[in-house]
Specification:
The protein has 4 helices and 9 strands; from the N terminus they run βαααβββαβββββ.
Length: about 220
């Protein structure tokens, strides 16, 4: 399943790079999913010490999930963390566009996982958080490919992977008036909080937003 912002468009003559990167991130997803399925079957059939160590290395090295020490050698915990929906998110270099980006987040139970974080989710009064936000190297253009079936071919119940406590206030406009909107939990924030996530850098020329009519004057829209 591919997800992309509806306002990120270019003329057909400029689609080559976009199509190439769609194939690239889909390839990353399929290769990663193949490894996840293999580890899930091994952990279910024969969770010996070597398999657990290999699966943990994959969990931490490829999926960038860090577990509390108490769970690091627990095959059932590792299996449950592997057996989740998977998304690969294209990220572009930060050139000042408004929006979220890729970060490592400390979760409620003490684990660390990759998350897409909106700037409005960050506590502006927390100097440490603001320093991390301002040092962000990449930006979320909303360019995702998602896998929503488990290693047995069953569809995940996606509502089971939502963080209901996540929300943020975003700024919108209607009929020329500025509004504030409460997004609960946010599609690629709280709604995908417990998905496995991989970030992939994609070229900036795949991100061509139209936020205002003036954006149509950019070279990429000619």
């Amino acid at each position: 399943i591919f997800i992309k912002n509806i306002d990120n468009v270019v003329p057909e003559k400029r689609l080559d790079s976009t199509i190439l990167m769609k194939k690239a991130i889909a390839g990353v997803l399929l290769e990663t999913q193949k490894d996840i399925f293999r580890f899930c079957r091994q952990l279910e059939d024969d969770p010996n010490e070597n398999i657990v160590a290999e699966a943990l290395e994959f969990l931490e090295g490829t999926l960038c999930l860090t577990l509390p020490d108490i769970h690091r050698n627990n095959p059932q915990m590792i299996l449950s963390l592997l057996n989740r929906p998977l998304r690969v998110c294209g990220m572009v270099k930060n050139e000042g566009e408004p929006g979220g980006g890729p970060f490592l987040v400390i979760n409620h139970e003490g684990s660390v996982s990759p998350q897409v974080v909106e700037s409005s989710q960050v506590d502006s009064k927390n100097s440490d958080q603001m320093q991390i936000l301002q040092g962000a190297t990449h930006f979320n253009p909303v360019d995702l490919v998602c896998a929503v079936k488990d290693y047995k071919g069953n569809k995940f119940d996606l509502t089971s992977f939502v963080d209901e406590k996540t929300c943020f206030i975003s700024k919108k406009s209607k009929n020329g008036k500025d509004l504030k909107a409460l997004e609960l939990p946010g599609l690629w924030n709280g709604a995908m909080a417990h998905w496995n996530t991989i970030f992939v850098e994609v070229p900036i020329n795949t991100f061509n937003p139209v936020k205002t009519v003036n954006d149509l004057l950019r070279e990429s829209h000619q």
